[in-house]
Write a structure and sequence with these properties.
Protein name: Substrate-binding domain-containing protein
GO molecular function, one term: DNA-binding transcription factor activity
Keywords: DNA-binding, Transcription, Transcription regulation
CATH topology of one domain: Rossmann fold
Strand order of the largest sheet: 2-1-3-4-5-11
Number of helices: 12
Oligomer: single chain
Pfam family, one: LacI
CATH class of one domain: Alpha Beta
Distance between the termini: 72 Å
Organism: Iocasia fonsfrigidae
Shape: elongated
CATH superfamily of one domain: Response regulator
């Protein structure tokens, strides 16, 4: 079995440095940490977890709660979190709340019983009191994929993402822009602001409402769009729609095409998240890309600083910018033949 001394020799560092890396000390230079972890994996070093926990008064476990494990967007963020945690000598316990505050509360209790060192969480309802109890009990918590008052957070500027979608569609010549989702979303606010900025109007008939954590699945979006088109007697009120995630966009494309509105020839569709499925579906989906790798790694980095007492006293708010990825679902439309 490999020892810390062997790892130190292979990596060209001291045993103290190896110890700091294995124990998750974030003060170690990232390049040096990666070098040490390379040899940890290469030599299959197995630290005594029980002894390590007793010495450092830590479990080296991070509790991770997401709302929808079936959504590839969250799966991609989780992958990034797991990799960053492993690079710092931590393991994660993953829980899926399935969009339920009750399940989320239950998971928190379970993770506390496992003595996790901190939480990474996508809250279902930011006003739930049990979340604030973690804060009062001084348990390190980082909220990710959204911003939350009084908590460290790593999020994405959804309002800016919505504005990117609107600008892209307007640049293509669209003047009647629709939306699939909830009007309460920052994405919609950004989308609407650009529409108004260009002197265009947003009418109710351009809106297909769908709300809730699990309401924007492909199946649900498909049903909502089908009902919308049935009520409109197969007529189309807009030439382009922005769906507030990729799964909703996939369902919308299927519904529109079944009603004779082919994408992108007769209607343009933009998604949000730029999941791995966006590039391989047909037509390939134009989408607003979220930096999933950065979200996960920065969230773990921030949490470990809190755990190790190395974070600033002030709450950290990290807001990342999304970007537009243009694919087939918004190209090739002939607006002269529409509406």
């Amino acid at each position: 079995m490999a020892t810390m001394d062997e790892i130190a020799k292979k990596a060209g560092v001291s045993q103290a440095t190896v110890s700091r890396v294995i124990n998750g000390n974030t003060s170690v230079n990232p390049a040096l940490r990666e070098k040490v972890m390379y040899w940890v994996r290469k030599l299959d070093y197995q630290p005594n977890a029980t002894a390590r926990s007793l010495v450092n008064n830590k479990s080296y476990l991070l509790g991770l709660i997401i709302p929808d494990i079936s959504n590839p967007y969250f799966s991609e963020v989780v992958q990034s979190i797991e990799e960053e945690a492993e690079n710092n000598g931590y393991n994660i316990i993953l829980c899926n709340s399935n969009g339920s505050s009750t399940k989320e509360k239950k998971h928190i209790k379970t993770l506390l019983s496992r003595q996790v060192d901190g939480f990474l969480i996508v809250p279902i309802n930011q006003k739930d009191t049990y979340l604030h109890k973690l804060k009062r009990d001084q348990i390190p918590v980082v909220v990710f994929t959204q911003q939350m008052d009084k908590y460290d957070s790593v999020g994405v500027d959804h309002k800016y993402g919505g504005s990117l979608a609107a600008k892209h569609l307007i640049d293509l010549g669209h003047t009647k822009l629709g939306f699939i989702g909830s009007k309460g979303e920052e994405k919609f606010r950004g989308y609407l602001s650009i529409i108004k900025k260009h002197g265009l109007s947003f009418k109710e008939e351009y809106f297909i409402e769908s709300s809730g954590w699990l309401q924007l699945s492909t199946h649900d979006s498909y049903n909502k769009v089908c009902n919308y088109l049935k009520n409109k007697k197969r007529s189309l009120q807009a030439t382009a729609f922005f769906a507030n995630n990729d799964l909703a966009a996939f369902g919308a494309i299927q519904a529109f095409e079944e009603f004779g509105f082919s994408v992108p020839e007769k209607i343009a569709i933009v998604g949000f998240d730029n999941t791995s499925l966006a590039a391989i579906c047909r037509p390939a989906l134009t989408s607003i890309a979220q930096p999933t790798g950065s979200i996960g790694s920065l969230a773990v980095e921030l949490l470990l600083k809190r755990i190790n007492g190395q974070a600033e006293k002030d709450i950290a708010k990290i807001l990342l910018e999304p970007r537009l990825v243009i694919r087939e679902s918004t190209t090739g439309i002939d607006l002269s033949n529409l509406l």
